[in-house]
Amino acid sequence: AIDLGSNSFRLHIGEYVNGVICVVKSAREPNRLAAGLDKNNVLSEEAMARGLEALKKLRAILDAYPLSDVRAVATNTLRIASNAPVFLQNAEKVLGYPIEVISGEEEGRLIYLGVANVLARPEERRLVIDIGGGSTELICGKGQEVERVETFSVGTVRQSLAFFHDGIIDGASFEAAILSARSQFEDAVDYYRSCGWTEVYGSSGTIRAIAEILAVNRIGDGRFTLENLERLREKMIGAGHLNQLKLDGIKAERASSILGGLTILVVLLKDFGIGVLKPIEAGLRMGIMWDIYLMATEKDRREEAIREMLKRYQVD
Fold first, then answer.
1. Quick one: which H or E segment has residue 108?
2. How would you classify the pairing of strands 8-17 and 2-4?
3. Considering only Cβ atoms within 10 Å of each terminal Cβ, which end of the chain, N or C, has fewer?
4. pTM of the entire predicted model
5. How far apart are CA 131 and CA 145, in angstroms?
């Protein structure tokens, strides 16, 4: 499963064993593709070159494994880039596999599929949050069933580039970033607050990274709560600049994404009334692998829906 995201390109290689998919190899190539978009959503030559270089490294890993199936998907940046076809044509040559640009709704479905199969709790009603470099997906569902999925045009790269110029961190920039993020979600707040979830999970790498920072730096009680996110915000403002952050668990290449992600998470936890967010090691890539497996075994929910329609209307 290959994910061409807005902040990095990632892959999982997995094997289905006794009812679970075991990840045997995982890789991440950061390239901040979204940072290469100009105001007209044209990807720069430099950004495309970074992306192709990342794919060369992933291709070398793929070539070392006997693979029965491969699915590569591209998300927000390549959904909106006006010159995406130019990049994709070259990218497919480098990768050696077709690349599918998926909608935000399909991205959310796959994210939820990965989370639901890892949790294996059929009665649990949950909200799943995934914050990427260019967009944020919110998925509400119960067990294996998706009840609502939405994608919002706000992500970690956009937030950091738009509000923290040259890596400068101050209170005014944080407030502006939070206000902007709030405007993206405000129309969805009432629904998601009322959809009856009992647990909230965060599936993206940015969320897991922030959870690690809260824990290893003993910020508050270390849990993923609004109170502790506010404490982390004050520590970042106190540092004044990305290069001056002295927190364990922050890697230099991920600092700006964490900063942008924090502004989105403060809004989500506060406005959606989320008490505790639970990071989970599952998401888009795990969902892609489950999708491959379910389609191969004809257990995919779309196949089941078609069979039910044939039966209902007595169609041969």
1. helix 104-119
2. antiparallel
3. C
4. 0.89
5. 21
SS3 209: helix
- Tell me, what's the pLDDT at 316? 85
Model pLDDT for residues 49-98, shown as the tens digit of each residue: 999 999 999 999 999 999 999 999 999 999 999 999 999 999 999 999 99
Interacting residues of 6 by C-beta distance below 8 A, sequence separation 6+: 33, 34, 75, 76, 77, 132, 133, 134, 135, 155, 157
Question: How far apart are alpha carbons 61 and 78 in whole angstroms?
Answer: 23
Between CA 9 and CA 23 the distance in angstroms is 17
Record the tokens describing residue 278, joined without a space.
């639970």
Listed residue (7, 164, 163, 152) closest to 77, CA to CA: 7
Phi, psi of 71 (to 5 degrees): -130, 125
Handedness of CA 47, 51, 56, 61 (dihedral sign): positive
SS3 68: coil
Q: pLDDT value at position 254?
A: 81
Is the backbone of residue 273 left (phi > 0), alpha (psi -120 to 50) or beta?
left
What's the order of all strands across the beta sheet hosting 125-131?
145-152, 136-142, 125-131, 199-202, 278-279
